[in-house]
Structures are given as structure tokens and as C-alpha cells.
Design brief:
Blueprint (H helix, E strand, L loop, with lengths): L3 H4 L10 H10 L1 E5 L4 E3 L7 E7 L1 E8 L2 E9 L2 E3 L2 H4 L7 E4 L3 E7 H9 L3 H36 L10
Antiparallel strand pairs: 1-8, 2-7, 3-6, 3-8, 4-5, 4-7
Helix pairs in contact: 4-5
């Protein structure tokens, strides 16, 4: 069984009542992952949202010049959330850096609960929309800053612009 106290600290479940959290706990599948083991590969079919209850994972993306590490996530956290909203292949690879305890909210279960107009699932959708909105605002700001640095570099105005 996953730890209820850890799950309730994950941002996507913010504001859920004790009853909502108890219901959610019934939907989750427990998964243990060894260090350096892949949780999922970029391009694979989605199977749901993962909760990182303990440990650390790396988010890795393939580019034309090779693989780059986008981020490291530490518990408590989550990943794979886009799969709850759209049926698209995984956009990155997730690799365990340490021994990890994960919870999987299966895609089929979540979609079934949404069709039933289940309040717990609907609250998770609201939280997901909030978090994605916050990320979009941050991404827009980062893109604007990088664009400005690139323009200064092209104009030769700021040799330090490379130090991101």
C-alpha cells in the first residue's frame, strides 16, 4: 500500500478531501523501480499518471544531437500527467536515479471515473489545469528571456549571454 500522507503532499492532489484521497488510494497501483531502470521510454504509449512517492528520477529527451537531461524529480512529485488529458505518445524518457516507489493512476481507470463524473477525478482535472497553466506561464517567460539573450548575442552586445 502507498503512504496516504505522501500522496496528499503531491501538488496534483492539492485540496482533495480525506474522502477524495481515500478513493484515489484505491485506484493506485504500487510499483517499485530499481536504480537506472526505465519507468517509460520516449515514444511509448501512455498508461497513466505516475506518483513519485520516494526516490529520484531523471527526465531525458532525445534531440538531433543526442539525449539531454531536462530535469531531475524528487519525491513527492508526479510525471506522465499529459497522458490523462490527451492520447499522445510519451514526450520523454523517465529513468530512476535511485530506488523508487511509484504509484500509477491507470489511464483507463481515470477516464472511466471522468465518464462517471466522479468528483475526485474532476478535482484532479482542475488541479492539473492549474499546474499546466503555471508551467505555461513559466515556459513563456523562459522563452522570452532566451530569445532576448540570443538577440543580444547576435548583436554582440552581451558575451555573457551564453551563461544561462
Amino acid at each position: 500500500m502507498l503512504n496516504h500522507n505522501i500522496v496528499k503532499r503531491i501538488d496534483i492532489f492539492k485540496g482533495l478531501s480525506k474522502e477524495n484521497l481515500a478513493e484515489l488510494m484505491q485506484w493506485l497501483q504500487r510499483i517499485e523501480v530499481a536504480p537506472m531502470e526505465l519507468v517509460f521510454k520516449e515514444g511509448s504509449q501512455p498508461n497513466g499518471l505516475y506518483l513519485l512517492c520516494s526516490g529520484q528520477v531523471a527526465v531525458v529527451k532525445s534531440t538531433a544531437k543526442g539525449k539531454i537531461r531536462l530535469a531531475d524529480l524528487e519525491a513527492p512529485s508526479f510525471f506522465g500527467e499529459i497522458s490523462l488529458l490527451i492520447n499522445t505518445r510519451r514526450s520523454s524518457t523517465i529513468r530512476a536515479q535511485t530506488k523508487c516507489l511509484l504509484g500509477l493512476l491507470p489511464l483507463e481507470t481515470f477516464h472511466q471515473k471522468i465518464e462517471e463524473k466522479n468528483m475526485t477525478a474532476l478535482l484532479i482535472c482542475v488541479n492539473l489545469a492549474r499546474l499546466l497553466g503555471e508551467r505555461l506561464i513559466y515556459a513563456d517567460k523562459t522563452i522570452a528571456e532566451l530569445s532576448s539573450r540570443m538577440k543580444r548575442m547576435k548583436a554582440g552586445q552581451d558575451y555573457r549571454a551564453m551563461n544561462i
